[in-house]
Amino acid sequence: MARTPSAKPATRKSAASAKVGTTVTKENLKALGADRLADLLVELSEQDAVLTRKLRMALTATHAKDKLGKEIEKRLRTIQRSRGFLPWDRIKPLAAELDALRQSILNDVATTDVGQAISAMRLLVELAPSVYERSDDSSGYLSDVFREAASDLGTLWGRQAGRDPAVTVRDLLTLLDGDGYGTCDHLLVSCGEALGTAGAAMLRTTLLTRLHKLPVSKGKENYRADSARMQTLGHMRDLADAVGDVDAYIDAVGLSDRQPAYIGDVARRLLDKGRAQEALEWLGRETDETSRFRWENDDLRIEACEAVEDRDQAQSLRWKVFRDRLSLPHWQAYQRHLSDYDAIDVEELALNHIRNFPVRGVALSTLLEWPALDAAARLVREHTAELDGRDYGTLRPAADRLSESYPNEATLLYRLLVEAVLDKALSRYYSYAAKDLASCRLLAPMLTTADGMESHEAFMIRLKAQHKRKLGFWSLIGE
């Protein structure tokens, strides 16, 4: 009897030790020893072509690093020659293999032969069209790898000693002009070191010459010419970013007939260069009529005002953003800049503004996030009819949050969600409505008759009378 309690912990400890020892982890596999692991890998590689290729690449990187670039190019050309359609379940494995090859080029091949690394990376970039043509990359896995490879290519150009800037300009334009899939979107920005001052000047001259040869933009009347202008101007902006020249970026924006769309981009770059007053002047060009990005640029205005030490204006902007869209991060930043004395009065003013905000769903979410649960419950009671039962992303979390302390108000929200589904006969959402009705049932014993609250029984009678033909829903209820 005395030994029994000590036996059980020992058994549990042994089981835990056995589990740890059999879990496939790096440390546990090391315990098998090199010979046993090698035997297992050889056995598995005979059944797995992907594993075989990985092992061959790893061996080449270890024992014949000077041949690794050629081995990678050989594999890339095999993929390029392939013509079979790639089903969805093969996209991610292929993207993983290509990304592994990309990293091997950048981290292994480039350490011994930058020229060979450039050759292999360019082949990887040029592989993109043939792969896209036989696959559906809606997941974006492949495009992410190819864009990374293009950016890496620009970096490798910069690492090649004695590279002629004219060659970089030629190769860069060849890839940009032939890019129909957005593969080279990040290439130019990574070419600052490769271009240098001479190459950047050469490329800018070439782009300006192209731009001046294109017809003046005619909008929808000549989309092809307009598209060519936008593409060329985009290259000029990327070139400015590549060499860190904000004035060149501004010049490129000035050549466009869509300047308002770039106001925030210009301001961001000016702020990054410590030119806050100029950033404010650019932001001042925005009007309600010309800017679709005004909200996106509010934070830039605040940052610029702080940079020029106009803190009153920065506070005014924070308060305005909070009032306009109930942004709690802006309220919190506003509050941090107040004295303790002022903060008390302003907090009540802010809460009153939230309570009276016309978009009730936004107001409800904000009160819950504040948190001000009593005010949120009051909003539900007083403005139930103004809440949209289709806004499940707001109402369901709100109902869950209120259910413990405010069962009446939580029930009102669950009922809104149920009725919104049934009123529109949205059968694909019946399962969600059934769960919300189950929540109503759980809260039923806690309901009070305050404010004319309809009992659960009365609600069910009304619901069944109005929606008795929706048998698909009632079959989920089990009543």
TrEMBL record:
- Region: Disordered; residue ranges are 1-20
In terms of InterPro entries, this protein maps to:
DUF6880
Task: Kindly give the Pfam families that the UniProt entry links to this protein.
Answer: DUF6880
Protein name according to UniProt: Uncharacterized protein
What is the scientific name of the source organism?
A: Acetobacter lovaniensis
